[in-house]
Design a protein that fits this description.
It is a single chain. The protein is mostly beta strands and 308 residues long. The protein is built from three helices and 18 strands. Strands 1-2-3-7-6 form a five-stranded antiparallel β-sheet, with no helix packed on it.
């Protein structure tokens, strides 16, 4: 009894329930010969198990801010002052790709947010080389990276794609470069088509920007359009007239209330497409120049989805 009383007088608040149970057991065993043998054992278990201090909380694992991106690779840039990691929004494909570069200082290992970064994609076809349209990157605080785009105009099956990333060290003004090889696929439903303009013979590339996650009802229908001047130069075209007509080829109907894309600048066009049901859709396009003369009327994007 003395041991029980001493334990009870020094118990911690969190142990009350255990001593309540222990006290009930004590009453039942008071007249038992087992009492004197069980009390020390139970008391020792309570002291070592129930009343021990809580384990200190462990720190959660750090979150990788780039874990949702598709990593192409990483390398030390020339001059050995900077380290560059290259990511994309998804596996590289023929069409409009979001591209992210993370630049860190090799000495401090800290991400640098105030340097000049440029992209140069190149396709090596053996007998010839060419580039593709680029929107040069700018620092994006949300992604903690330099965000830009590359519109690959052909898949890797025709040659080898690389992307050169150049970054200027703001401390020394030295420009370092890292070159990354990558495999560019062509999606089952291509996100880019090209044509030769019927009005002036220009080579035009049209890439689908949205919808990337199509659904029933109204969807953004966004395009970006470039003109090929030479193997390295692809200026955006912002003065075209575009009309769209979606249809379900297997169902024999279209949809109402679509909004033709109009220029928002820098080669981008924004419209709306109405998918009235899930399944296979084809969005047909007619493209005219600034004067209203027909350039091409056979363009389309196939879009299939099975979610509401």
């Amino acid at each position: 009894m003395n041991l029980y009383l001493r334990l009870k007088s020094h118990q911690k608040p969190e142990c009350c329930l255990y001593f309540f149970a222990f006290n009930n057991l004590n009453i039942k065993l008071m007249n038992s010969k087992l009492y004197l043998g069980l009390v020390p054992i139970l008391a020792l278990g309570l002291i070592m198990g129930s009343c021990k201090k809580d384990d200190p909380q462990t720190e959660p694992d750090p979150v990788d801010p780039y874990e949702d991106l598709y990593k192409i690779g990483e390398a030390d840039a020339s001059f050995n002052e900077l380290h560059i990691a290259l990511y994309m929004g998804e596996e590289p494909f023929m069409g409009y790709n979001y591209v992210y570069a993370v630049v860190t200082d090799l000495t401090t290992n800290e991400v640098i947010s105030n340097c000049n970064v440029t992209y140069l994609p190149m396709m090596d076809m053996g007998s010839m080389q060419h580039s593709s349209p680029v929107e040069q990157p700018m620092w994006n605080a949300d992604t903690l990276a330099y965000a830009g785009t590359v519109t690959f105009i052909m898949p890797s099956a025709g040659g080898t794609w690389t992307v050169s990333v150049k970054a200027e060290n703001p401390a020394t003004h030295n420009v370092g470069e890292a070159i990354f090889g990558l495999n560019v696929i062509n999606k089952p439903e291509p996100k880019l088509f090209s044509f030769v303009s019927a009005t002036n013979g220009d080579k035009i590339f049209v890439a689908l920007v949205e919808p990337r996650e199509p659904h029933t009802d109204m969807n953004d229908f966004d395009l970006v359009i470039y003109n090929k001047l030479d193997m390295l130069t692809f200026p955006p075209v912002s003065d075209l007239q575009i009309s769209i007509e979606p249809e379900m080829p297997t169902m024999g109907h279209g949809s109402p209330n679509n909004v033709d894309p109009v220029s928002t600048g820098n080669g981008h066009y924004h419209g709306k497409v109405n998918f009235t049901m899930m399944g296979y859709w084809r969005v047909n396009m007619e493209i005219r120049d600034a004067n209203g003369d027909l350039m091409y009327d056979q363009g389309y994007f196939d879009i299939t989805f099975n979610n509401l």
